[in-house]
Amino acid sequence: MESIDLSTLQMQQEPNVESIAAWTTSMFVVELPEHDVLKEDLLSYAYQKRDSSDSAIASQVAVSAKNNLFESRLDFLESDAQGVNELKLILEELVSAVVEQVNSGSMEEGQALDASIVESWCHITENGGYHDAHSHPNCSWCGIYYLDAGDCELNSRSGVNRFYDPRNCANQYHDAGTQYLDATGVWDFVPTSGQIVIFPSYLKHSALPYFGQKDRVVIAFNCVVDWA
């Protein structure tokens, strides 16, 4: 049988390679336009909550996972205090827009989704404070509004929110073909006053130890979603 020199063969056409984005995790970041208007009223309300509480962790949730911070009860946005209801409506509209975007491929034309905040709380973190890694049960989407980022800083990782790769084995091996996975297995988000980060509830995250003279103040919230 006559041998064939494979090096002389050429493809008749380029192969059609399709990319499939399987099991992607979508996160969203937005600057709140109303931040400067709402900030002072919301800060005042947060400190009122702290001053009137007889416990540093008023929610009584995962007390041992938190250090040197105040956490309110889980009804922070259920109030008639100045600016609170306005913020709640804004956040629910934002999350509704986000979930419609990520679910657009599964929705019929004309359908809409409605996000409702079912739990909300504030954190006032002082020097040395942190919150261990955790996820949020009993909801589908979550968010963090950075009311006052204080002295958060990336180089020292002071006060950053660290998000952990949900693909448990993605970083077990690393070579030139896995650079896109990011072998660190984490993504560090540096808080900026006025920013909101929205993420799925299954995504494990933490607040790394914060070192600063100012307080780090955030409002966090959990949402459930239904058809509008």
From TrEMBL:
Pfam families, per the entry: 2OG-FeII_Oxy_5
Taxonomic superkingdom: Bacteria
Native source species: Alkalimarinus sediminis
Name of the protein: 2OG-Fe(II) oxygenase family protein
High-level lineage: Bacteria, Pseudomonadati, Pseudomonadota, Gammaproteobacteria, Alteromonadales
